[in-house]
Automatic annotation (TrEMBL):
UniProt protein name: Uncharacterized protein LOC125177798
Keyword match Protein transport: no
Signal peptide: 1-19
InterPro entries: C-type_lectin-like, C-type_lectin-like/link_sf, CTDL_fold
The entry's keywords: Signal
Organism: Hyalella azteca (Amphipod)
Keyword flag Metal-binding: no
Domain C-type lectin as annotated: residue spans: 154-266
Gene3D superfamilies: Mannose-Binding Protein A, subunit A
Length: 268
C-alpha cells in the first residue's frame, strides 16, 4: 500500500552472522555477488596486495564511509561504502565473488556465541539483540542498522540470524498491535515492516506454518479495508503483508513483495 524505490527481488540465503575480530576491527563475514558492487553507484576503492588484517586496518581510517571490505583472490583490498548487513549472503546468485568480504555494520550479532550460551539448543532462547517483548514474543528489528529489503531477502536475513528465526508470525491469534507498535516505536522504526505472511489464494494470507491470518489482524488505509489486493501505487498482485505504519492504521495490510521496507525478525 505504499511506495518506495524498487531494489531487487532476488532471493538470497542469509547464513552465518558471526562476528570476528580482524586486528582492532570487529566485523562479520558476508558473501557478495559481482552485481552487488555495481548498483547504486557504490564507491569501491582498491589497494594492492594486502592481508585481511591489513585491509581491515585501512577500514579503521574511515569506518563510517567504508563499512564493507573485501580481500580478493588476487589479494587486493577493496573498501566500499556499501551497506550490507551482518549475515548478508548472496552466494546463491549467479556471479558470486570468490573474495573474502566483511561488514562492520552493526549489530554484529555473534550467532555462534549466542548458540553456545543457549546450550546449543536454539529453542526457548531469546538472545540479544532479540528481545522477549510481552505479548509480542522474541523479536528484533532495527531501522538504523538494517537496510530496507524486499520480502524474500528480508525473510532470508531473519532466517540467517538464528536456526529457528523467521519474519514475525502469530499463528492462530490476533497480534497485540499496541504492544507491537510500542516496540517498533521504541526501536525507531517509523515505517512499514514486513511480517512473515504470504498470499495463498486470492486475498487469503497464511503464516509460515500454513495457518490462515485471522481477519482481526487486518487494518485499513483510510476507508479501504485490507487486504485490498493492491499495493501503492496501485497494481498487482500484492502478495505479502506488512504492518502499515505509514499510511494505514498500524495493523496489517498487503503490499508488493518486491518493495524494500523494514522487517521484524522473530524467534518463535
Ligand atoms: C544478488 O546478486 C544478484 C545477481 O548478481 C543481484 O541481482 C541481486 O540484486 C543481488 N542482491 C540480492 C539482495 O539478491
Ligand atoms: C557511495 O559513494 C558514491 C560516490 O561518492 C555515491 O554516489 C553513492 O551514493 C554512495 N553510496 C552509499 C550507499 O553511500
Ligand atoms: C598495484 O599494482 C599494479 C600492478 O602491479 C601497479 O601498476 C599499480 O601501480 C599498483 N597500485 C598501487 C596503488 O600501488
Ligand atoms: C518470554 O517471556 C514470557 C513471559 O512474558 C515467558 O513465558 C517466556 O518463556 C519467555 N520466552 C523466552 C524465550 O525467554
Amino acid at each position: 500500500m505504499k511506495m518506495l524505490t524498487y531494489l531487487a527481488s532476488c532471493l538470497m540465503a542469509a547464513s552465518g552472522a558471526g562476528a570476528l575480530m580482524l586486528g582492532a576491527l570487529k566485523a562479520s563475514r558476508i558473501t557478495v555477488g559481482a552485481f552487488d558492487f555495481n548498483y547504486n553507484g557504490l564507491q569501491v576503492t582498491k589497494y594492492n596486495k594486502s592481508t585481511t588484517v591489513q585491509c581491515a586496518t585501512r577500514v579503521l581510517a574511515n569506518v563510517n564511509a567504508t563499512p564493507v571490505f573485501c580481500v580478493t583472490s588476487a589479494q587486493e583490498c577493496w573498501l566500499t561504502n556499501a551497506t550490507f548487513p551482518a549475515g548478508y549472503d548472496n552466494s546463491s546468485a549467479a556471479g558470486a565473488l570468490p573474495h573474502k568480504c566483511y561488514t562492520t555494520i552493526k549489530p554484529l550479532f555473534d550467532k555462534a556465541a549466542a548458540l553456545a550460551a543457549c546450550g546449543g539448543n536454539p529453542s526457548g532462547c531469546c538472545p540479544a539483540p532479540f528481545e522477549n517483548v510481552t505479548n509480542v514474543g522474541c523479536v528484533f528489528t532495527s531501522f538504523w542498522f538494517f537496510p530496507m529489503l524486499p520480502f524474500d531477502v528480508a525473510r532470508a536475513f531473519c532466517k540467517g540470524m538464528w536456526p529457528t528465526g523467521d519474519l514475525y508470525s502469530r499463528p492462530g491469534g490476533t497480534i497485540d498491535f499496541t504492544a507491537l507498535n510500542t516496540y517498533l516505536d521504541r526501536m525507531g522504526v517509523v515505517l512499514d515492516v514486513w511480517v512473515g505472511a504470504t498470499m495463498v489464494g486470492v486475498g487469503q494470507f497464511a503464516w509460515p506454518d500454513g495457518s490462515a491470518v485471522g481477519s482481526s489482524n487486518y487494518g485499513s488505509v483510510l476507508i479501504v479495508p485490507q487486504p485490498d489486493l493492491t499495493g501503492f501505487p496501485a497494481g498487482g498482485p500484492a502478495g505479502c503483508l506488512l504492518v502499515m505504519r505509514t499510511y494505514g492504521n498500524q495493523k496489517l495490510g498487503d503490499d508488493y513483495c518486491i518493495k524494500p521496507v523494514n522487517y521484524l525478525c522473530h524467534i518463535p
